[in-house]
Design brief:
- By secondary structure, the chain is mostly beta strands.
- About 0% of the residues lie in helices and about 50% in strands.
- Strand 4 and strand 5 form a beta hairpin.
- It is globular, with a radius of gyration of 13 Å.
- It starts with a strand and ends with a strand.
Length: about 120
């Protein structure tokens, strides 16, 4: 079992920035990939970004490229999501998750955090 705890969400004006953090209790063979998803009210959960623990590979959803940056701190089992140039449509609950392999489908991810709310005002 891997526990994930997100932090760093909040209210920000459009054009602003936020940095989300995810603390993982441990790394296992089924949690080689760390990622972020988001879910807005009435919408499906969507992939945001992912990174492997070595930090050598990152993947982003097309709409986040250039604005969001995922990173990891292997020594402390932490993952981060730096979000810049935020837009009102980025408003959602952001979830940290782990998976054994990279996939943009939420169903293949093994462990999930409780989520952190990000609200971007116009």
């Amino acid at each position: 079992q891997v526990q994930l705890v997100e932090s760093g969400g909040g209210l920000v004006q459009a054009g602003g920035s936020l940095r989300l953090s995810c603390a993982a209790s441990k790394r296992t063979v089924v949690s080689k990939i760390m990622g972020w998803f988001r879910q807005a009210p009435g919408k499906e959960r969507e992939f945001v970004a992912a990174i492997n623990w070595s930090g050598s590979g990152t993947t982003y959803a097309d709409s986040m490229k250039g604005r969001f940056t995922i990173s990891s701190d292997n020594n402390n089992n932490m993952a981060y999501l730096q979000m810049n140039s935020l837009k009102p449509e980025d408003t959602a609950v952001y979830y940290c998750a782990t998976a054994p392999i990279l996939s943009k489908s939420p169903s293949t991810w093994t462990y999930w955090g409780q989520g952190t709310q990000v609200t971007v005002s116009s």
